């Protein structure tokens, strides 16, 4: 009498069902990776915009009346609401960043010889704002 040996292995249905399950799991993770990549790119754009605004603010602190506020005489005390509203384009790696500088001064700031500077950088859908003071003598 001939005895058949039991053959071990996976059936076609088991292989196909495992492939389907693995595909579903990988597709769900791929959506997570895509979304995290978009978020990282957006955060990178915001970070570049914030750094540009902070750099412009520091540049203004060094030379407040040279480039951006040339019509202001630094030897006088001021009493005004808005000194200047300047828009400038910045270019970084072929991208166009719009920089808006707004300088204001209240009477309290005038007494302390300070100018309030608000710098806003716009890029695509993101907008970043940095605020600081410039001291003049």
Written overview of the protein:
- Keywords: Competence, Membrane, Transmembrane, Transmembrane helix.
- It is found in: Cell surface.
- With 137 residues, the protein is of the alpha+beta class.
- It has a single domain, classed as 2-Layer Sandwich (Pantoate--beta-alanine Ligase, Chain: A,domain 2), CATH 3.30.1300.30.
- It contains two helices and four strands, in the order H-E-E-H-E-E.
- The chain has helices at residues 12-62, 107-111; strands spanning 82-92, 95-104, 114-123, 126-135.
- The protein has a four-stranded antiparallel beta sheet.
- A hairpin with a 2-residue loop joins strand 3 and strand 4.
- The longest helix has 51 residues, at 12-62.
- The chain starts with 11 loop residues before the first helix and ends with a strand.
């Amino acid at each position: 009498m001939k005895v058949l040996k039991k053959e071990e292995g996976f059936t076609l249905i088991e292989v196909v069902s495992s492939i389907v399950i693995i595909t579903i799991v990988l597709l769900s993770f791929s959506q997570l990776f895509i979304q995290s990549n978009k978020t990282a790119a957006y955060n990178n754009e915001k970070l570049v915009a914030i750094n540009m605004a902070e750099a412009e603010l520091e540049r203004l602190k060094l030379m407040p009346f040279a480039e951006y506020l040339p019509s202001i005489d630094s030897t006088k005390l001021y009493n005004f609401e808005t000194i200047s509203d300047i828009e400038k384009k910045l270019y970084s790696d072929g991208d166009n960043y719009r920089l808006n500088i707004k300088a204001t001064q209240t009477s309290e700031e005038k007494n302390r010889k300070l100018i309030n500077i608000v710098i806003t950088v716009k890029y695509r859908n993101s907008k970043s704002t940095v605020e600081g003071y410039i001291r003049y003598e």
